[in-house]
Alanine dehydrogenase (Aestuariivirga litoralis), 371 residues
Amino acid sequence: MLIGVPKEIKNHEYRVGMTPTSVKEAVRHGHEVWVQANAGSGIGASDADYTAAGAKIIATAAEIFAKADMIVKVKEPQAVERKMLRPGQILYTYLHLAPDPEQTKDLVASGAVCIAYETVTSPRGGLPLLAPMSQVAGRMSVQSGAHCLEKAQGGRGVLIGGVPGVAPGKVVILGGGVVGTNAAVVALGMGADVTILEKNVDRMEELVARFGTAVKTIYSTQGAVEDECAAADMVIGGVLIPGAAAPKLVTKAMLKDWKPGSVLVDVAIDQGGCAETSKATTHAEPTYVVDNVIHYCVANMPGGVARTSTFALNNVTLPFALAIANKGWKKALLDDAHLRNGLNVADGKVTYKAVADDLGYAYVPAEKVLA
Ligand SMILES: NC(=O)C1=CN([C@@H]2O[C@H](COP(=O)(O)OP(=O)(O)OC[C@H]3O[C@@H](n4cnc5c(N)ncnc54)[C@H](O)[C@@H]3O)[C@@H](O)[C@H]2O)C=CC1
Ligand SMILES: CC(=O)C(=O)O
Ligand SMILES: [Mg+2]
């Protein structure tokens, strides 16, 4: 199979779909890999590194999209990339379609086979191709939020860990999954006062088993969200209903009760965000203020630490990329129900129920497209 790796073009997105090591592995399995010139420059991988791994360096994305059987990316295809997709071409990347009707419309129109990293599942539960980026974003969220709390950034002027004699800042984490757990690791490491709001009782038991009494867990209701967030210096949004638009836990009306200069880091923004006032921002302009609350809503946070993120992502995406390339997408998806859960759009049909429901498309199960 001819695998194509274009350079990412989203704002300040420095990750790349395949590392030289991943390319070498694909070539070893008999595949041809075309990598766009400079695609790896953001992670310190040169064209020479890719050539040494067996890739062919191609000048433009257009040439890659025109010929490749499978496009391997990181971020959802931007409008100019969507125009280049071809019927039957495989697109393997993050998509986050539920909050993105424009992208969904274009992917349906393209006739391409669109496999979303974020909905592939695992026999052990969870979302294995989302998890490493959630680990990164969760850890980064506290680092970014702490920076926003500095006065020069418009923040409250609170040092998140406090000092002897002065209480630490209060960090409230909405959702105790991968983002939430990793945010807690860093917030606790910095000495913050940490509370996690969660809906899943088993998950709360796991959090307590892991962190002991160092974190407080509270069952997530609207009242709990109101009370805890109003007392917080930093709120981190890490809720998820897989594939669906994020639930709006924080209403605009709630913000008037929040501390002036407090910060909301809405990591869930790639699924639309968990606050009514959240809208996606970029690394170039990561924040804006609503009702004296700083909003940090960068939809590709891991792109900011592209080296760590690219290697972490490739660790989990490569085995499935090889399965698709070795067997062809239909057999790979028929053989593996968990990879099949990644199929969001194929042959002009929406094959992921939450996306179809949220955006008003007819839902066609993946099994029907594969029949
Ligand atoms: N902005 C960015 O750059 C990045 C964003 N993300 C996003 O972060 C979000 C969270 O991802 P993960 O932690 O991997 O998901 P996860 O599935 O591991 O955790 C989500 C948690 O939210 C909980 N939850 C659901 N509804 C809730 C509610 N009403 N109140 C409290 N908790 C609730 C679930 O029980 C679950 O434990 C996703 O939207 C993901 O796409 C992930 C990586 C990077
Ligand atoms: C998960 C995601 O959206 C990202 O890593 O950018
Ligand atoms: Mg997005």
